[in-house]
């Protein structure tokens, strides 16, 4: 039955694709949940797996079972999530260390610092992270973000001010 649905889906039949994905949804959720031990992560990875399946449906060549192909996509998606989480954890640790050694006194819990950082607009958070996490100079950040050096300095300064206010540590 899968092979008929797959062929129809590959031919552009959206109903067949939806039926195919619905049929395999709980299978993928259970697999990722068993693999990760994290229910929410299982749902997130499954969602991304299904999105990738939609994009790559024409790359399935019936050489293996469809479920095997889905497991392969889910496994790679899960590993990508883990890599991203490891990078995020390293960023968190680097920022925690950076701010704990900075002249800015963050007396709040690190979780609050992280939350405040993620509340910043991209235009302020990105230069701030590039400066204080990666250690880039203002000129390099200007090239990366395609804005003037003075704008980068202003955005880093403003981002730090917003963090201070959010954390209620502004000494002014």
Automatic annotation (TrEMBL):
One of its GO terms (molecular function) is sigma factor activity. Pfam families: Sigma70_r2 (PF04542), Sigma70_r4_2 (PF08281). InterPro entries: RNA_pol_sigma-70-like (IPR039425), RNA_pol_sigma-70_dom (IPR014284), RNA_pol_sigma70_r2 (IPR007627), RNA_pol_sigma70_r4_t2 (IPR013249), RNA_pol_sigma_r2 (IPR013325), RNA_pol_sigma_r3/r4-like (IPR013324), WH-like_DNA-bd_sf (IPR036388). The keyword Transcription applies. Keywords: Sigma factor, Transcription, Transcription regulation. It comes from the Bacteria. Residues 112-163 form the RNA polymerase sigma factor 70 region 4 type domain. Coiled coil: none annotated. Residues 20-87 form the RNA polymerase sigma-70 region domain. GO terms for biological process: DNA-templated transcription initiation. Belongs to the sigma-70 factor family. ECF subfamily. This is RNA polymerase sigma factor SigY. It comes from Halobacillus faecis.
């Amino acid at each position: 039955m899968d092979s008929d649905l797959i062929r129809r889906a590959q031919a552009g039949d959206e109903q067949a694709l939806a039926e195919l994905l619905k049929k395999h949804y709980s299978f993928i959720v259970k697999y990722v949940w068993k693999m990760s031990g994290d229910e929410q992560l299982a749902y997130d990875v499954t969602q991304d797996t299904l999105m990738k399946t939609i994009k790559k449906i024409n790359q399935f060549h019936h050489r293996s079972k469809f479920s095997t192909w889905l497991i392969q996509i889910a496994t790679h998606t899960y590993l990508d999530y883990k890599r991203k989480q490891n990078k995020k954890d390293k960023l968190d640790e680097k920022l925690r260390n950076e701010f704990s050694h900075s002249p800015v006194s963050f007396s709040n819990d690190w979780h609050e610092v992280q939350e405040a950082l993620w509340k910043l607009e991209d235009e302020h958070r990105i230069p701030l992270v590039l400066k204080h996490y990666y250690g880039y100079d203002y000129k390099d950040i200007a090239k990366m973000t395609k804005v003037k050096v003075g704008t980068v300095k202003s955005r880093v300064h403003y981002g730090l001010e917003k963090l201070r206010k959010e954390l209620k540590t502004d000494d002014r």
